[in-house]
Amino acid sequence: AWQVREITAAHAASTYWDDILFLGYLPEEMAAQLMASALALTYLSFFEGFGLPVLEALCTNTPVITSNTSSLPEVAGDAALLVDPDQVEDIAGAMLRIWSEPDLREDLVKKGQIQRQQFSWDKAATDIYTILQAVKK
After folding, report:
1. CA atoms in the 13 A half-sphere facing the CB of 62
2. Dmax (CA) of the chain
3. pTM
4. I need a labelling partner for 60 at 20 to 30 A (CA). Which of 51, 92, 121, 136 fits?
5. CB burial string 29-67: b at 16+ within 10 A, e below
6. Average pLDDT estimate for 79-88
C-alpha cells in the first residue's frame, strides 16, 4: 500500500526473489485456506491496535510467531512464539524452531485452540454494549 520501498528493494535483492509472492487482496475463503496450509504465520509488527491476523491464524490452527510489542502478546497469549521485531537473530531462531520442532508446532496449535476462545464478535459486541450502557447513565 504505502512505504514499501525497503520491502521492494529487499525482494529484488533476495536470492529467493522468485519464491516470494505478493498476492495482494484475496477473497476471505481463499485467505483462510492459504493461512491454514502455512507452516506458520510470522507477523512482526512494531505496533498494532489489535492484531487480527494473529487471531485468524489461531482460528485456522496455524502456529504463530509474532512481536512481543503492542497488543500482540495479549492476543497471542502463550499460543505463539514472541520475538523482538528488531532482532533478526530472534526472528530467525523462532522460524528455525517452528521448522524443526513438530512437537512445538503441535503444542502451539493446541494452545491456540484455547486462546482463540477468548475472542468472538458476540463477546466484543456485548462488551461494547455494556460500556455504552454504563456511559449512558
Report:
1. 23
2. 62
3. 0.84
4. 92
5. eeeeeebeeeebbbbbeeebeebebbbbbbbbbbbbbbb
6. 97
- Of 56, 44, 59, 53, which Cα lies nearest the Cα of 109? 59
Q: Which whole-number Å values give the CA distances from 109 to 59, 80, 95, 105, in the listed order?
A: 9, 9, 15, 6
C-alpha cell at position 130: 455494556
Q: Which residues of 3-28 are buried (b: 16+ CB within 10 A; e: fewer)?
A: eeeeeeeeeeeeeeeeeeeeeeeeee
- State pLDDT tens for residues 93-126: 999 999 999 999 999 999 999 999 999 889 889 9
pLDDT of residue 1: 57
Contact 40, 64 (CB under 8 A): yes
Express as a percent the part of the chain with pLDDT over 90: 80
**DSSP-derived 3-state class of residue 38:** coil
pLDDT at 123: 84
